[in-house]
Design goal:
Elements: H1 11-15, H2 20-29, E1 34-35, H3 48-61, H4 63-66, H5 76-85, E2 98-101, H6 104-115, E3 121-126, H7 130-138, E4 142-149, E5 152-153, H8 155-167, E6 172-178, H9 191-204, E7 207-211, H10 227-230, E8 236-241, E9 253-256, H11 259-270, H12 278-290, H13 293-318, E10 324-325, E11 333-337, H14 344-353, E12 356-357, E13 359-360, E14 373-377, H15 383-398
Helix pairs in contact: 3-12, 6-7, 6-11, 8-9, 13-15
């Protein structure tokens, strides 16, 4: 007789569901499919030789340190490098304002642990990053979504919603936004709205959690100051990562925030994994010390810009006129909206039969909508596969269009 494990699961374990994207990737790996689904960086952007040389030097001169435990806050040299590298965005930050995490997903998890009690409200964009929604949900957070347009989150609706929640006696803990080249929508919050969201946060006394993994991957247009750099009263917590600009395998990211918040996050991290692996931190630091990371990023931008252009040109060529999509100025993603009578979740298996995959949009919507949307990623596939995949997907969609 086997044990009935369901009786033993915690409320947290029972609440969690598998990532829709991870489940899709399992299907793709079992078949010869062109994947426009996962947001994985192109391996051609990884500075393999330079990282290899950095690792060799570390083991040659500092192996004992590289194989030891580290401080929970993270390697001091790496934290100092990040602060100096991002000085324009973090003018008033010092070592007490930054910690290293094992990927930005851990940052989302730690923020949820520190700020959320069951029933607390998190304001999110419609749509928003799926793994962030899962992190907030796992600690009992209740998501309230705010629509976006091509300039980002609608500030008028945000303020109306916060007023309504305050009237209802609901506790809003933070506003979560991906300010640059948003995942999944690809849009960027304009400077006036960044200033406005700070005013709203001050008015209602709520934190802003600014997730900023794609900031350096701008293909066109002028860079916009981060929300974190515009506000200095402790309202903004910023997440950054090496995953999209160096490589995801090192699992290195950082959190910038008020000293008191960082102290709490450090305590929570101590209960999670004690510390981020020192070996990977040393490799990243040695790489950054010896190489021009901005030059590597610019090379990556050239690669991704070409792929973005191929996807947008292919969408114009092969998708029906009834479809619309975003035109990102950077990042990894294009978001497609189809007629409301088309369910992209139901259509997914038909696309797989044609050997092309995407991510259905509904899981990105905290309000349960978005069934007629999909996320397309141009970052990983080759340019020829992007065009072929869009062509195949266009054929699938055209069969669904009502005359």
């Amino acid at each position: 007789m086997s044990i009935n494990s369901e009786e033993f699961y915690s409320v947290l374990a029972s609440r969690m569901k598998a990532s829709a994207i991870r489940e899709i990737l399992k299907i793709i790996q079992r078949s010869n499919v062109i994947s426009l689904a996962g947001g994985m960086p192109d391996p051609a952007t990884f500075p393999t030789e330079e990282l290899n040389e950095a690792a060799k030097q570390i083991f040659a001169k500092d192996s004992a340190r590289a194989l030891q435990y580290s401080s929970t806050e993270g390697l001091q040299e790496l934290r100092e490098f990040i602060l100096n590298w991002l000085a324009e965005d973090n003018k008033k930050a010092d070592l007490d304002n930054i910690m290293i995490t094992s990927g930005s997903q851990q940052g989302l998890d730690l923020m949820s642990k520190v700020l959320l009690d069951p029933g607390d409200i998190v304001i999110v964009e419609l749509p928003s990053y799926l793994a962030a929604l899962n992190a907030f949900r796992s600690y009992g957070g209740e998501m309230v979504g705010i629509p976006m347009d091509d300039k980002g989150m609608r500030m008028d609706i945000l303020e109306e919603t916060l007023n309504q929640l305050k009237t209802e006696g609901k506790k809003v803990k933070f506003i979560y936004t991906i300010s640059n080249f948003q995942n999944p929508a690809g849009v960027t919050m304009s400077l006036p709205r960044r200033k406005r969201i700070l005013e709203i946060a001050r008015k209602f006394e709520v934190f802003i959690l600014e997730d900023n993994p794609y900031d350096k991957l701008r293909f066109e247009g002028e860079p916009i100051p981060s929300i974190y750099s515009l506000g200095n009263e402790g309202y903004v917590i910023s997440l950054g990562t090496f995953s999209k600009i160096l490589c995801p395998g090192l699992r290195l990211a950082w959190i910038l925030g008020d000293k008191e918040i960082i102290e709490k996050l450090v305590i929570m991290k101590q209960a999670t994994d004690l510390c981020t692996t020192i070996l990977n931190q040393l490799i990243a630091y040695e790489y950054c010390r010896q190489n021009d990371i901005d030059k590597n990023i610019e090379s990556n931008v050239q690669i991704y810009r070409k792929k973005r252009d191929v996807m947008l040109e292919s969408l114009d060529k092969y998708f029906p006129s009834e479809a619309s999509w975003t035109k990102p100025e950077g990042g990894f993603f294009v978001f497609v909206t189809l007629p409301e009578y088309i369910n992209t979740d139901e259509m997914f298996l038909e696309a797989i039969e044609e050997k092309v995959a995407y991510v259905s949009g509904a899981p990105f919507f905290a309000n349960g909508k978005g069934q007629n949307t999909m996320r397309l990623s141009f970052c990983y596939p080759k340019e020829k596969d992007i065009e072929e995949g869009i062509k195949k997907l266009g054929q699938v969609i055209k069969k669904k269009i009502k005359n």
